[in-house]
Design brief:
Blueprint lengths: L13 H7 L38 H16 L5 H10 L4 H8 L3 H15 L4 E2 L2 E2 L2 H11 L38 H6 L6 H11 L34 H4 L8 H12 L40 H4 L4 E3 L2 E3 L2 H9 L2 H15 L17 H14 L5 H9 L2 H11 L2
Antiparallel strand pairs: 1-2, 3-4
């Protein structure tokens, strides 16, 4: 493993915090590998721990790090026994302790809470139980099932972890949290854009537009005229030029957006699957809405507008179940899971390429960790991914350096 690989942290509010004279609540440093300084920034807070894979935390550093991430991961502080173990065994105690944490009920609840926030799905409203996605997440984590089941599971659970008779949408297939009414109703919108966008940010840690190598764009001629525009001069549709989306260069985003939105075409606003959904624009509703509470398709031809088939991340899919499988088997899904774990434990916000909306981790670091885990288990539980990334010495060093700034 190279010692030159960097864990680059881009700071959103560091300059604001410094300007206001406030202290950072957590890690907030831009750190490069190979830095020098005291081996224990607790003893000398002006010095930084080297952010490389040779760093070995002292007992005090291990205790500081685990004490910081413990409440976020478990909903509790360190026990007296854990304090003593970390002080006595230092860095060698970190990974075994993490692995013991990950079988506690508190970890399953913490991941559930994270995903409910990401998916905009919790609580109950009318006849929609928005908690079903969270119940599924909790079950997957508590039973150490492959994390890919979050988007592929065909079994669902109630609040008491009792299996239910299929998903609650009425669809003739299942795709984990993606086919829960809570997810679908919580992200409904014109052209099914919100459903696609939330999927992409939550499970692939990307925004639109993203790498065409990851999601090849659709042929512009398949799209409605408004989505073919690649510049202001190209835009010939008044509704688009007048304010829908950016109205100018629609193709740059919607050439990918459209492919991710299409498998949602038969789900209405309340998350119910409708076999008769056509994907056609309603004659009386706003732009992007179909009839009977459904959304319109991006496709121009009425012959294909109501079909669920599409292509997700280079894989042809017949419906949302195939689409979920395409996510679950993708290496970027596992890398995104690592980012989500870092955000849960330390506060590194995924899905954005710059510091405008959060903090970002070097993609090469995520690839390295994900590949090392996948080499041992091609379809790992989230515990394997979490242990690998949170026990990594570069993450520990970055975290404790940030806490001492």
């Amino acid at each position: 493993m190279t010692t030159t690989l960097r864990l680059s942290i881009l700071v959103l509010l560091a300059s604001t915090a410094l300007a206001c004279g406030s202290e950072a609540a957590g890690p907030s440093a831009s750190i490069s590998t190979g830095g020098t300084g005291s081996s224990d920034p607790i003893d000398n807070p002006m010095q930084m721990a080297p952010v490389d894979d040779t760093f070995v935390p002292t007992g005090a550093q291990a205790e500081m790090y685990m004490g910081y991430i413990g409440p976020a991961l478990l909903g509790r502080t360190l026990t007296d026994a854990e304090h003593a173990k970390l002080n006595a065994e230092a860095g060698s105690a970190v990974k075994p302790m993490l692995e013991s944490w990950f079988i506690e009920p508190g970890f399953a609840e913490a991941v559930r809470g994270l995903m409910e926030t990401r998916l905009h799905a919790s609580g109950k409203l009318g006849d929609v139980d928005y908690n079903l996605a969270g119940y599924l997440v909790r079950h997957i984590v508590a039973h150490k099932l492959p994390w890919s089941q979050v988007v592929t599971s065909t079994t669902y659970y109630d609040e008491n972890d009792i299996p239910l008779a299929g998903n609650d949408t009425g669809a003739p297939y299942s795709a984990g949290v993606l086919t829960t009414r809570g997810y679908l109703a919580g992200n409904e919108g014109r052209f099914n854009l919100s459903r696609a966008h939330t999927m992409l940010k939550t499970f692939m840690c990307r925004d639109y537009p993203h790498e065409t190598e990851l999601q090849p764009p659709v042929d512009a001629l398949k799209l409605k005229l408004m989505f073919r525009a690649k510049s202001a001069e190209d835009q010939k549709v008044a509704e688009a030029a007048g304010g829908f989306g950016n109205g100018l260069a629609c193709y740059s985003c919607h050439s990918q957006f459209s492919l991710h939105a299409q498998p949602f075409v038969k789900f209405d606003k309340s998350g119910v699957w409708r076999a008769d959904a056509t994907g056609l624009q309603s004659a009386v509703a706003q732009l992007g809405d179909g009839d009977n509470g459904t959304a319109a398709s991006h496709w121009d031809s009425p012959d294909v507008a109501g079909l669920e088939e599409s292509s997700w991340f280079g894989t042809a899919v017949a419906n949302l179940a195939d689409a979920g499988a395409a996510i679950g088997q993708h290496d970027k899904f596992r890398e995104c899971t690592l980012q989500q774990v870092l955000d849960l434990a330390i506060g590194l916000n995924p899905a954005y390429e710059t510091g405008v909306k959060g903090l970002k981790v070097d993609p090469a670091f995520l690839t390295e960790i994900a590949e090392s885990v996948s080499a041992r288990n091609a379809d790992p539980p989230i515990q394997d991914l979490a242990a690998a990334v949170l026990a990594d010495p570069r993450v520990i060093a970055t975290a404790i350096n940030g806490m001492r700034r």
